[in-house]
Amino acid sequence: MEQIMKEIKQVIASCDQLIQDEKFNELVEYYTEDAVLVVKPGIEARGKAEIKTAFAKIAQYFDNSIKPVEGEMKMIIAGDTVLVLAQTFIEASEKAVKQSDFSMERRATYIFKQVDHNWLCAIDNSYGTSLLD
Amino acid sequence: MEQIMKEIKQVIASCDQLIQDEKFNELVEYYTEDAVLVVKPGIEARGKAEIKTAFAKIAQYFDNSIKPVEGEMKMIIAGDTVLVLAQTFIEASEKAVKQSDFSMERRATYIFKQVDHNWLCAIDNSYGTSLLD
After folding, report:
1. What pTM was estimated for this model as a whole?
2. A122 touching B (Cβ < 8 Å)
């Protein structure tokens, strides 16, 4: 369990760095083939190509200054499937934050799956249960 | 997508009825072999046997009067893996509700997986992101 948590934390840290560096080709390698990213409530990107495009748009929306930072994190591990609950802070330039319609502090729900010994993100929902609002 | 949502909604409705009827042998057939139930924050039941025992204790805790009711529900579907976000109301006798340390209204996160054409629950976390509190 400890080892799995450590591996997934490393994947999330790598992804956060790749988002900040806008290296989206490398980023989507951490997603499953049929992964879903909740871009904003009601809007989903599905599969690596759509997710890559969505991240590029999100970066632009945040004035190319986005920096995701994870806070408190909990994991529930069921074999090859893991639910990650994470406090996520989206840091960005003052200008971008002022213009944003979206909360910069979120409680995210990520689902990771083990595929060929690698932990990949299958569902990336930074909005967590707030989608029920 | 519509069909998958319909099937999973039916599974959840069946499970809620089986919990109310305390038919735990039938209930655990809707869980994967390595499923995890978050019994309460920090306490997990893992696998069908532990989950069955946990549900029996939960029923007793709630004075054998438990009735789960789902409200608003959202699903994010990534191939054979689905994240369900659900408003869940735990109804129970007045006496049981008064004695309970736990919220009777929750925002749950369930993960379902398709196994041999059936949708089974892999992670049952009725506490949702409130585990981060």
Report:
1. 0.95
2. yes
CB pair distance less than 8 Å for B109 and A38: no
* ipTM reported for the complex, 2 dp: 0.95
Cβ-based neighbours of A94, under 8 Å, separated by 6 or more: none
| CB atoms A78 and B111 under 8 Å | yes
Mean of all residue pLDDT scores within chain B: 95
Our CA dihedral for B29, B57, B47, A33, rounded to 10 degrees, sits at: 80
CA nearest to A111 within chain B: B83
Residue that is written with structure tokens 């696998």 in the block: B47
Neighbouring CB atoms inside 10 A of B35's CB total 24
CATH of A2-132, one of 3.10.450.50, 3.30.1660.10, 3.30.590.10, 2.30.30.30: 3.10.450.50
